[in-house]
Design a protein that fits this description.
CATH superfamily of the largest domain: Zn peptidases
Order of helices and strands: HHHEEEHEHEEEEEHEEEHEEHEHEH
Shape: elongated
Number of domains: 2
Radius of gyration: 24 Å
Strand content: 25-35%
Protein name: Amidohydrolase
Number of strands: 16
CATH topology of the largest domain: Aminopeptidase
Helix content: 25-40%
Mean pLDDT: 97
Pfam families: M20_dimer (PF07687), Peptidase_M20 (PF01546)
CATH class of the largest domain: Alpha Beta
Largest sheet: 8 strands, mixed
Strand order of the largest sheet: 1-2-4-3-5-16-6-15
Organism: Clostridium rhizosphaerae
Length: about 400
């Protein structure tokens, strides 16, 4: 079965789809037109689907066996101006597919077209997950809650992400932990306001907040092993209205990123202890809110073996790059990896000769569209191999 030939035979369609999505980006849970285009495509191909998580879609290609594999693509864009000068640049001001989700969506549609055309040869089912709001709240968790991993039961899930640091024609894989977990937090420190000339009559929340910010960094530097990545970032601090007024309160917000579940729980606990302790010792009051956001993304060894073997048959094993370090970024595919054996890999889209070198989440981001049929072929091969073994 030569899936690369099949994918290359529809390359023009893939490029057209991707450019259409790129020109008309939509933010998380606002992907109404994107969703309509996907559903119209599925209807044309005769693939059954259901709506999920608002603008998300779960489609299924039914084969002849009992096993079911899930394949996922995210469909949302970012709130960013597209500064590329090309025919397919964003037509919506302040919206851009700056992370490659247009490519992910296109690849999964290509996979749907090819696998559906040969569904009588599949020894099981293929579920296609088009996930909304990956960049914000993680649509995967809402899809899972609505039962997309059941009826029929999904045995495993595979996902990919385009990567501008990996050359087109290659992929990159990481065993074990692939992405960090995250916990956004907000801290409100309340004191007693007053005149800047008479601090003795006040409880200065700015001074308290300053001590809190410095102390939080010691959790990572002195309480987490140096061999285990962790980050506490304070991204904003707001308080006060004038130079000579001590305010009533200060609000701090930031995010925790950890690579191990036990560290995630430990850092959250210590943040509360440190913030509460410093605030009370300096006569202030702290209100702390820590959100439960994306978990760690774990690659299952057996599933990654499957992806590597399938990809090796498409691009050659010498074109599989092994990553030694995880990313401190988060990825909502992690919700799937927490529920089922999963594999997540990076599809190379970099091409210096074409000037495709700009970073994701940047206003000049683009992909080498030669990667589209490669991604389609690898996903098809992996699904076919899993159901056939």
């Amino acid at each position: 079965m030569n899936f690369l030939d099949k994918a290359n035979s529809i390359k023009a369609e893939l490029v057209a789809l991707r450019r259409n999505f790129h020109s008309h980006p939509e933010l998380g849970f606002e992907e109404y037109e994107t969703s309509k285009k996907i559903k119209k495509f599925l209807e044309t191909e005769g693939i059954e689907y259901k709506e999920t998580a608002g603008t998300g879609i779960c489609a299924i290609i039914r084969g002849t066996g009992n096993k079911t594999i899930g394949l996922r693509a995210d469909i949302d864009a970012l709130p960013l101006k597209d500064n590329k000068a090309c025919e397919y640049s964003s037509k919506t001001l302040g919206r851009m597919h700056a992370c490659g989700h247009d490519g992910h969506t296109t690849i999964l549609m290509g996979v749907a077209k090819i696998l559906n055309s040969m569904k009588s040869e599949l020894k099981g089912n293929v579920k296609l997950f088009f996930e909304p709001a990956e960049e914000t709240v993680g649509g995967a968790r809402f899809m899972i809650k609505e039962g997309i991993l059941e009826n029929p039961y999904v045995d495993c899930v595979i996902g990919l992400h385009v990567d501008e640091n990996t050359e087109v024609g290659t992929i990159a894989v990481k065993r074990g932990v692939v992405n960090a977990a995250s916990n956004p937090f907000t801290i409100k420190i309340k004191g007693r306001g007053g005149h800047g000339a008479h601090p003795e009559d006040t409880i200065d929340p700015i001074v308290i907040a300053s001590n809190v910010i410095i102390a939080l960094q010691t959790i990572v530097s002195r309480e987490i092993p140096p061999t285990d990545p962790a980050v506490i970032t304070v991204g904003s601090i707001h308080g006060g209205t004038a130079q000579n007024i001590i305010p009533e309160e200060v609000t701090i917000s930031g995010i925790i990123r950890t690579m191990r579940s036990e560290h995630r729980e430990y850092v959250k606990k210590r943040l509360v202890e440190i913030v509460s302790g410093i605030s009370s010792s300096m006569r202030g009051i702290a209100e702390i809110n820590i959100e439960e956001s994306y978990p760690c993304l774990y690659n299952n060894d057996d599933m990654l073996d499957l992806v590597e073997n399938s990809a090796g048959n498409i691009i050659g094993f010498e074109n599989i790059k092994k990553l030694s370090s995880p990313s401190m970024g988060v990825e909502s595919f992690a919700y799937f990896s927490m529920e089922r054996p999963s594999a997540f890999y990076y599809l190379g889209v970099r091409n210096e000769e074409k000037g495709i070198i700009h970073p994701a989440h940047g206003s000049l981001f683009d992909i080498d569209e030669d990667a589209l049929p490669i991604g389609v072929a690898i996903q098809c091969q992996a699904a076919y191999d899993y159901l056939s073994k």
